Amino acid sequence: MNHSNLESLMKLHLSTGQPVLDQFMLSQSDDALTAVWDYGASPYALGDTLTWSMLSSIEALNAGKKFFDVCTIVHREKPNSSLQPYINSNNYQFFLIDVLPAFFVNPMLRDFHLYQDRESLEMELFYKNITGQVMFPDFKEHISAFRKAYGLYNSHDTINAFFEKNGFIPRLKVPVGYQTWARDFLKNHNPHSNYVCIHLRNRGQHKDQTLAELYRDGDFELWLEFFDIAYSKYPNVKFVILGRPMEWPRAYFQRQNLLILKSFGYGLLEELAMIGECDFFMATNSGPGVMAIFGEKPYVLFQPDENAVYTAKVYGIEPGQTRLPFALPEQSICWKIPELEDLLDTLDHHLAVISGKENRR
To answer: Considering the entire predicted model, what is its pTM?
Structure first.
């Protein structure tokens, strides 16, 4: 299912008050855990959704399950948590459609169900509870006042413990069709180029900046200078830029070595596919970076000092530690706001690493 078809389906069914995407009862199978994402407690946020998806995989494997089914609840009268007071009954559908594809990048996902009626969901969960089926969070935790007030969705503790015990984590990947699309897109654009995927957070361009944490945004003038130097030094390197076209200065559209993916009409799943298909990923630490963290490609994420302690606690590491416990080779975090020299050194290093590899395209 591509992004445009998904949007059409969502617009068709969101007003019905019935479970969306599947009008039937959840599959009754011993092979799957049921994972619940409640927008009344948890945010409309890419990074948190991806982390929770990874946690669902881990919880399923810990319970001896091969798959997990997702039950998502968004109640039209109370569609948001206290973390996002700017989302309300009049606009939540736009945020929902924007983030919903993030649920579909986990190979262990089997079924997806979206409810707008809390009573229908909780009756289904009650049935699962009394029949002994495995849920995440468990039934008591889901119905607790704390859970509904503030979801626990972003800690790496369970993920790190699973890796320490088993030596692997189940990596996130877009569906195969999107992997093929991304490979063909790059091949058709220029098969002889090296491609670097880029994301710079830019909440400063958004109208509503409630809880925006603007210190996490990228320095667009600095990065533009970096792209210009990179073009003169490495004319065969192309940068695939993620994010909404409105977020990028006009000068970015005028550079020959930049491809702003959404300006071609593509959506979130295509962007996440590019993270897995480009040669490596550079970004300020934000939502798309989580796809890289739980993926297989080399990455460097630049983490500002202002929330370093909190971020390190979420990751289960010490501030300044450059690698997550489950990181693969050439996957690292740089604990600073980058200067021009940092960006150029990162590019030089990763191009040197991939220079001896056969061109996959």
So the answer is: 0.86
